[in-house]
Design brief:
The structure holds two protein chains of two kinds. Chain A has six helices and 13 strands. The radius of gyration of chain A is 18 Å and the shape is globular. Chain B has one domain: Na+/H+ antiporter like domain (Na+/H+ antiporter like fold). Helix content of chain B is 66%, strand content 0%. The radius of gyration of chain B is 21 Å and the shape is globular. The chains are: A alpha/beta, B mainly alpha. At the A-B interface, helix 5 and helix 6 of A face helix 3 and helix 13 of B.
Chain lengths: 287, 405
């Protein structure tokens, strides 16, 4: 047997799945909200393109209509040509299929990218929108000024949708060695998230995938390996529910009336985490 | 403002190259100054760094609870005292008197501020942290107290010291101007600000006309109204006493920059200074605590953008600014040449406390502020750079042929 063939056999035995067909663990029911989660993706390099291809392949089975982006949508040069190379081209299949992207701003994004039409930020650093029965709150954790906090609280109070989800770039809880928890922002945001019944919060920044055990009733995801990857950076602690730092990854999420289903897949289509999260009620009575 | 009894007048005074007996006699004054104004603030920063890195959640909860009281209220006294120094510096014997003496450093300060601000934008983009450039007013900051201390250690009573002070004051003044649009672009209420501020200054002028000598009415009526004007107008209220202090009755002669009012001085401003001294020190300690806590793991490329921008931009900017000022026909002080200017340029890179303040005003809490604050702490290396430059260029205490009296 040639050395190449031997290597392939060994890799398969170790669980390598180069051409794995995606297998869904989410229910994939009609009338639910289906979306994908992607963070720290905008490198313009091959792994970003390969993960985008995997997302397009998954969409053939799980017809998500929305992608939420967790910031660092672009790294390095952000000229018009680079925006095309780092966004339009890798996600062309999804864009052509009518998938909508809604981005948060990260620390590597130029301020002007909030005006980039495909990101649907409407020129704002922070904003809110609703799809079906889910209200999304998109925050700018680069600068969490008093004005943004006032806006966030008012938007939370006005929200009437049964589900409230938030996403932003810097993780409030995280166990990656490079950055970890943004405690200063946590002190400001967590009371509002708890009070107003946010069930799940997504963030990026650390180039790994991690699911945190519920903290004060809220499940936090770090999904910052949509393009960049920092292998071996996750140092699990007692707050870690699950993690993956060996390959690029993205999430798919399905939300019905009372439960949120999630599945995290690597660039090769391997499922690295999945589960179900029940909706929580806010202290102000929203359910 | 303190009990430093040195005379920072431009008169040329001997600069021995070694720490001789005369210099040892001068040091207690410097140490007194350090104890009052240098150590309390870094002490607050040190406590903050330890607290933030041991129990971050507890630290940030405390900070967010104290923030308003410290930065919006207590620091009013500190900036009031700083303005008092500026006002007195414009009187006879002051470093800002007459205006021709102040002209060159004021013009040079334009280069000192513009070049590093542009450099920050360039460097932040180059290292892939473009949002850090939002903190550009931070590059204007010069830590007057720390810089003065280092300048005195290097130069003693050399004319370059008041030159440095003028540069620092002018740079910080431009920083305050820069902070207003940077921090309040969306909420500046100019009509409200001007109306209420005019009323505050009007009241202070009337009090002065009535020959009111106690500083309390100026502080409580004029200062409070000015504070409200700034808050309602959308400008940081720590500056509330800045427009009030110039209209308070004061002495006709400057006792010296950063020098306490003599016990015989009973004018309103001197009385205010005596009352304010200890509360201002408490404010500085708390300010160091509130602004200084940065998680060491927050170190990122953006962290180095600001110190790098000032290390590169300020020497270039100062030398360009001085060249421009000289082209306008303005003159450098006696015994100040390019070598002394180079050392001064590195002294001005130390933003430290002013940079912490400017950062906190320019951007709200979050990742960008953490990076800027860590950057502000790193600018302390500018003091070492100044020492290294002085040694390399043989100026100040490292001069080969010290001048004799």
């Amino acid at each position: 047997m040639s050395r190449f063939a031997t290597t392939l056999v060994v890799l398969f035995v170790l669980g390598w799945q180069p051409f794995a067909a995606p297998t869904l663990t989410v229910p994939n029911r009609p009338d639910t909200l289906k979306f994908a989660v992607l963070g720290d993706n905008g490198t313009g390099d091959a792994p970003q393109y390969e993960l985008a291809d995997q997302m397009a392949a998954v969409r053939q089975l799980f017809a998500f209509s929305l992608v939420i982006m967790l910031g660092d949508n672009f790294y390095g040069s952000q000229t018009p040509a680079n925006l095309v190379r780092k966004f339009d081209r890798p996600y062309k299949a999804l864009l052509d299929a009518g998938v909508t992207f809604h981005a948060a701003i990260g620390n590597h994004d130029e301020a002007a990218t909030v005006n980039y039409p495909p990101l649907n930020m409407g020129g704002r650093r922070y904003y809110t929108y609703a799809v079906k029965h889910v209200r999304f709150f998109v925050l700018d954790t680069n600068i969490m000024d008093a004005e943004q906090l006032r806006w966030f609280e008012a938007a939370l109070e006005q929200a009437r949708e049964p589900w409230k989800l938030a996403y932003f770039h810097h993780p409030l809880y995280g166990n990656a060695e490079r950055h970890g928890s943004a405690v200063d922002i946590r002190v400001l945001l967590e009371p509002l998230l708890v009070k107003h019944g946010i069930t799940v919060a997504f963030s990026g920044h650390d180039h790994i995938y991690e699911r945190i055990k519920p903290q004060k009733g809220i499940t936090y995801f770090v999904a910052g390996s949509g393009g960049k990857l920092r292998k071996g950076d996750l140092v699990p602690s007692d707050t870690t529910a699950s993690g993956f730092d060996q390959d690029q990854a993205f999430m798919i999420v399905e939300v019905d009336a009372s439960e949120l289903f999630f599945q995290t897949m690597s660039r090769t289509g391997k499922t690295v985490d999945s589960g179900t999260i029940p909706r929580v009620a806010g202290r102000n009575g929203t359910m | 403002m303190n009990t430093l009894n040195v005379l920072p007048t431009p008169a040329a005074v001997p600069r021995p190259s070694r720490l001789d007996a005369r210099r040892w006699r001068g040091l207690p004054d410097l140490w007194h100054f350090a104890a009052e104004y240098l150590l309390l603030l870094p002490f607050g920063v040190a406590i903050a760094l330890v607290h933030a890195n041991i129990a971050p959640e507890s630290y940030f909860r405390t900070v967010f609870a104290l923030d308003f009281f410290v930065t919006d209220v207590a620091m009013v006294l500190f900036f009031g005292l700083a303005m008092k120094e500026v006002v007195e510096a414009t009187t006879r014997g002051g470093v800002l008197h007459p205006w021709r003496r102040a002209a060159l450093p004021l013009v040079a300060a334009l280069g000192l501020t513009l070049v590093p601000a542009i450099a920050l934008r360039t460097i932040a983009s180059a290292v892939g942290e473009p949002l850090v450039a939002w903190g550009w007013p931070t590059t204007f900051a010069v830590d007057v107290a720390f810089g003065y201390f280092v300048a005195m250690v290097i130069f003693g009573r050399h004319p370059v010291v008041p030159f440095f002070l003028l540069l620092a004051l002018a740079s910080n003044a431009l920083g305050f101007v820069a902070l207003t649009p940077a921090a309040t672009a969306t909420q500046l209420q100019l009509a409200t600000l001007l109306t209420l501020m005019a009323a505050a200054i009007g009241i202070v002028i009337v009090l002065r006309r009535w020959n009111i000598r106690s500083f309390w009415p100026y502080l409580l009526i004029g200062g409070s109204l000015s504070w409200c004007a700034l808050v309602m107008g959308g400008v940081h209220p720590a500056l509330a006493l800045v427009p009030i202090v110039p209209f308070m009755p004061h002495g006709r002669r400057d006792p010296g920059f950063l020098v306490d009012a003599p016990s015989t001085a009973h004018d309103t401003l001197s009385e205010f200074e005596r009352w304010c001294r200890h509360p201002a020190q408490v404010a500085l300690l708390l300010f160091g605590y509130v602004t200084g806590g940065v998680l060491f793991r927050a170190l990122d490329w953006g962290t180095f953008s600001m110190p790098l921008a000032v290390m590169v931009g300020k020497p270039v900017g100062l030398l360009a600014g001085v060249t421009f000022a000289r082209a306008l026909g303005l003159h450098l002080p006696f015994h100040v040449g390019w070598r002394e200017l180079t050392v001064v340029a590195f002294l001005t890179t130390v933003g430290f406390t002013m940079a912490l303040f400017f950062a906190a005003v320019a951007v709200g809490p979050g990742a960008v502020l953490s990076e800027l604050k860590m950057g502000a702490l790193l600018t302390l290396t500018g003091g070492l750079m100044a020492f290294a430059a002085a040694r390399l260029l043989h100026v100040g205490r490292f001069a080969r042929h010290p001048r004799r009296p």
